[in-house]
Design brief:
- The chain is an alpha/beta fold and 272 residues long.
- It folds into two domains: 152 residues, Rossmann fold (3-Layer(aba) Sandwich), CATH 3.40.50; 110 residues, Rossmann fold (3-Layer(aba) Sandwich), CATH 3.40.50.
- The protein is built from twelve helices and ten strands.
- The longest helix is centred in the N-terminal third of the chain and has 17 residues.
- The radius of gyration is 18 Å and the shape is globular.
- The chain binds D-glutamic acid.
- The site of D-glutamic acid has 16 residues, from α3.
- D-glutamic acid binds next to α3.
Length: 272
């Protein structure tokens, strides 16, 4: 038994999709969610900068006493996961491997598509993992720089719909049968992707696969909280608490009483 909370972080609200699946799978655990709203989006940033931000946040969470950290951001996972695991004592679960694994299992044609941020596509990590699992599988990747800013702005209008269709077009042309939605923000607009690809394409989202991996990790290490209790979640943001609360409540369909502010300076000091 281990009563410490689980830390989850993202550049903004995208990691809430992972938090949601964790709440469904592990309602007895406590969570501490940190969104780096002041520095979102991470996608257009160089890998070195994303690595620095991820180390600051993970150090802050570790010093807050969490028992496990979920890097609920594909950009941070693809740029920083090995470095975080080397630097910190607490176990860290990322979002990339569980998704690649699910996609390789699901595809029949062995032609897989990837939609993600520029940083994730540029890292080439999905190619590496997919090919390690099935050297004969082909991955077609498309970077989607317009999606995270539109999602964070709560924009679900014609511009978002058109952008998703534009990014989906090369994957449809390549006749992939499975598409990895390689950014934790994307399940927030799940229906837009479902319409763009139609019934014939399997969409793989990271959140469910990641929650399963977190639950298994806690179980195998013997650090689960007491079964039967009702866990709690605390929310932190470096950005606007009010904006985070509005987006968070709408997505989670959960009343969020308080969003606590943490400054970028506090994060920097945690890693100093
Ligand atoms: N949710 C982050 C991801 O999964 C978004 C990255 C960004 O801020 O651009 O990649």
């Amino acid at each position: 038994m281990d009563a410490r909370p689980i830390g989850i972080f993202d550049s903004g609200a995208g990691g809430l999709t992972v938090l949601h699946e964790c709440l469904v799978t592990m309602p007895h655990e406590d969570f501490l969610y940190l969104g780096d709203g002041a520095r979102c989006p991470y996608g257009p940033r160089p890998a070195e900068e994303i690595r620095r931000f991820a180390l600051e946040i993970a150090s802050y969470l570790e010093q807050s006493g969490v028992k496990l950290i979920v890097a609920a951001c594909n950009a941070a996972t693809s740029a920083a996961l090995p470095g975080l695991q080397e630097a910190l004592a607490v176990p860290i679960v990322g979002v990339l491997v569980p998704e690649a694994h699910a996609a390789v299992q699901a595809t029949r044609s062995r032609r897989i598509g990837l939609l993600a941020t520029e940083a994730t596509v540029a890292s080439g990590r999905y190619e590496e993992v997919v090919h390690a699992l099935d050297a004969g599988a082909r991955l077609v990747s498309v970077a989607c720089p317009r999606l995270v800013p539109l999602i964070e702005a709560g924009d679900v209008g014609a511009e978002l719909d058109a952008a998703v269709r534009e990014y989906a077009a090369p994957l449809r042309a390549a006749e992939v049968d499975t598409v990895i939605l390689g950014c934790t923000h994307y399940p927030l607009i799940r229906r837009v992707f479902e319409r763009a690809f139609g019934r014939g394409t399997t969409l793989v989202f990271s959140a469910e696969e990641t929650a399963r991996e977190v639950a298994e990790t806690l179980q195998r290490k013997g650090v689960e909280n007491a079964a039967g209790r009702q866990g709690t979640t605390r929310f932190f943001t470096t950005g606007s608490a009010e904006e985070f609360r509005t987006l968070g409540e709408r997505f989670l369909q959960l009343p969020i009483e308080e969003v606590e502010r943490v400054t970028v300076r506090e994060l920097e000091l945690a890693a100093a």
